[in-house]
Amino acid sequence: MTKFLFDEFHKISPAAWKQKIQFDLKGDDYNDTLLWKTNEGIVVKPFYTSEDRTNLTTKSSQKDFNICQSIFVDDEKIANSLAIDALNRGANSIQLKANSTFNYAILLRNINLKNTILYFNFSFLDANFTIELSKHINSQNAYFQVDIIGNLAETGNWFYNLKNDFSILENIVNNTTNSISVSLDLYQNSGASITQQLAYTLAHANEYLNYFGSKVASRIHFIFSVGTNYFFEISKIRAFRILWKSLLREYSLNNNTHIFTTPTLRNKTLKDYNVNMLRTTSECMSAIFGGSNTIANVAYDAFFQKSNEFGERISRNQLLILKEECQFESPQNYANGSYYIESITHQLAENALFIFKEIENSGGFLKQLKSGKIQEKIKQNVLKENNQFLNKELVLVGTNYLQNKKESHHSKFELYPFVKERNIKTLIPPINRNRISELDEKNKSPLK
After folding, report:
1. Predicted TM-score (pTM) of this structure
2. What would the DSSP string read from start to end of 366-428?
C-alpha cells in the first residue's frame, strides 16, 4: 500500500521547481525576490531537495540534555538553599558563579555531588582553591569554566600576566578534570556573526592546544550562547562539533565535545520586556536541537533586575515544558537528515574554517587579539546590525516594530542595563558585550 501510494508521485528536479516558481513570480526576478543573503554571506534558497544533502551528521555524547540553574554565590547559605530548591524543582545541574573564593563545604551541603552536574564560573584565577574544591567534589560531573584567554578578550587584561596566567592554569589542568572552558558566548553577545563566532572559538581553543599540547583536549569544554535565528543557531552548534572534531583529528584525537549553552542577552529588550520570554523559548529550542549537553536558560529580566524567584522559576519551567510536555527528551540528533539544516551547517563550517585558517596563518588567535583585528572585525558586524536595526531589517518586536506607545522607561532598575564605561588601562581593546537595542533605549531612558 505504501509503495503504491508513493508510486503515484513523480520525482521533480530542482530545476523544474525553480522554473515553476519563476513562472508564478510573473516577471519578478527569482534571485532578487526569493534569495536571502545573511550577514555570513550564506544564500538561503526558498526550497531545498535531496540534492542539497551533505550527509553531515553530528552526535552528542549524550541523548538527553541537562537543565541547569545559574546561581551567583554571594552568601553561601543562601546560594545553597537556592541550589537545593532548583534541584527539587526539576533542574539536574547547577552553575555557580563567584567573584571570590567561598566556603564550598557550606555551599555544597546536602547536594548529591555524584548525581548533580556542577559548573563553576569564576571571575578570578586561583589554583589552590580550584584544586581543593575539585578534591572535595571528587566527581567527573564537575566543570570548571576557567578561560584565561576569554578573560583577556573581555577585560583587556590578564588576571596577572601571560606567563603567570598560563602557569596557574597549567597547575589547575594537571590536578583537575574538565578545567578549561572556551567562551563562544562572549563573541555572540558582543555582536560577532555566526561564522565569526565559530572561527574565533575554534582558534581560541587551538591556543590552549598549542600551549599545553593534545593532552588537554579532554579537559576543554565550551560555553555557547544562541540567538533567535532559529535554524542557523541549530546549525551553529552542529557545525562547531564538526569543526572541533576536524581540528582534533589533526592532533590524532577523537574526543567528545561538551557544550554548555545559554540564550543570548544581545537581543533582549527593556521595551516590552515580556517578549524576552518568547525569545528565550525559541533559543532554548535551538540549543536543544543543536545538541547542547547542558542548557541554562536566562530570566526575561536578568539584565536589569537582580535574581528573583519569579524570573528564575519561569526560565527553568520553560526548559521543563520543552523537555517533559513537548517530549524533547532525547532530541539531540533530530536535525540529522534535514536538507536545509545540513546545507547551512556545511556552509557555516566551511566559511568558519576559512577564517580560522586565516587566523592561524597570521600567527594565531592571541596575536590577532593583541593587534585588535578580532575586535575590529566584530565591530564591523555590530555596525552592520545596528544599521539593520535602525532600518527595521533586523526586527525586535516591541522595540523597533509594533511598539507599545503607552510604555515608558522607568528608573527603578536594580541593575544598570547598559554597557558600562571602564576607565582602566588595558593591554588590548576589550570585547564588550552589548545589546542591539541599547542605543535606542539609552537615548530615551532617565538613566542616560
Report:
1. 0.93
2. HHHHHHTHHHHHHHHHHHHHHHHHHTTSS--BTTTBS--TT----S--SS--SPPP-----SS
